[in-house]
Write a structure and sequence with these properties.
119 residues, alpha/beta, Hypothetical Protein Ychn, Chain: A, 4 helices, DsrEFH-like, Sulphur_relay_DsrE/F-like
Length: 119
């Protein structure tokens, strides 16, 4: 199965897009894919404890549950610039979530057979 890189730029400002990104990421983890989820823009806040639970969307799996699936079976990254703009540090993040920049994102996207999706 090929690697899947998913970038979410949406947070509480666009709940459906945020939920779609994490739903696809969690489904891919369950399917056995190598998943890398990037939290950028307003989605960067979801890398902090409890913040994903703030998003409530009718008829959707809670975002915190989806994020937990991805954290357990994939890689979750908060964008460096997005973190800095919001005052987020590595110490603020959920266990296992990292901060990395555009060069790492591009490297993952250009890996052989990788598929990138942006929400």
């Amino acid at each position: 199965m090929r690697p899947l890189v998913i970038k979410s730029t949406s947070g509480l400002d666009r709940p459906e897009a945020a939920n779609q990104a994490l739903t696809v990421a969690a489904a891919a983890v369950v399917a056995g894919a190598d998943v890398s989820l990037w939290l950028t823009g307003e989605a960067a806040w979801f890398g902090l404890p409890g913040r994903a639970d703030e998003l409530e969307l009718e008829h959707a799996t809670p975002l915190g549950e989806l994020l937990e699936v991805v954290r357990e079976g994939g890689l979750v990254t908060v964008c460096t610039q997005c973190a800095v703009r919001r005052g987020i540090t590595a110490e603020d993040l959920l266990p296992g979530v990292r901060i990395a920049g555009a060069a790492v994102f591009v490297e993952e996207c250009l890996a052989p057979d990788a598929q990138a999706l942006v929400y």
